[in-house]
Amino acid sequence: WVLLLAGLQTTVWPELFGGVPAPQLWLNVILYFIIFRAMIPALFISYALVLLLHPFTSLSLGVFWTSLLVLVPVGSSVKSRTFWQGLRYFIIGSLALTVGWHLTSFTVSQIFEKNPANLHLFTRLTEVLLTPLAAVPQYLVMQWMDRAGVIETTFRFG
Q: Angle at the Cα of 33 (from 121 to 92), degrees rounded to 5?
């Protein structure tokens, strides 16, 4: 699923929409695990998914993992305090996680990398707006996959 989404984001999207930045489809998968799994399994799953996603990006593995090391526990903490079932929660979570991703990955890059990421304000704002829109069909598919046991079979923890 995540490889299909990465392919859509990096190959199909640019063919269809040209220079319009693609939504961060993979980020909604991470969000699903943050919301519907405990923090430690969500963190392990996120780290494993990064290994699949890394070839699709120019982002360093260190920035990827460090950003998720911040975002997954924060997301799990927010979930433990405020949670309600449904698509609206997932869309709001997608917006929050996308903003958090851009802030965290940019900051980590500025601090730790020799050639830090550029701001690219238009690209980042477009991704922040499009990713929650993409969350709608992704949520429905992932809910179906979870009910069918596809996700549980793939990521079995104890």
A: 50
Question: Could you read off the pLDDT of 79-95 as tens digits, one per residue?
Answer: 999 988 899 999 999 99
96-108: string of b/e by CB count within 10 Å (b at 16+)? bbbbbbbebbbbb
Give the C-alpha separation, 147 to 27, whole Å. 21
Alpha helices in 8-148 (DSSP H): 13-17, 25-36, 39-53, 61-81, 87-112, 121-148
Do 35 and 51 form a contact (C-beta atoms < 8 A)? no
- Max Cα–Cα distance, the chain, nearest Å: 45
pLDDT at 152: 63
Show the CA angle centred on residue 75, arms to residues 73 and 79, nearest 5°: 115
Split at pLDDT 50, 70, 90, the class of 38 is: very high
> Which residue shows structure tokens 């269809």?
16
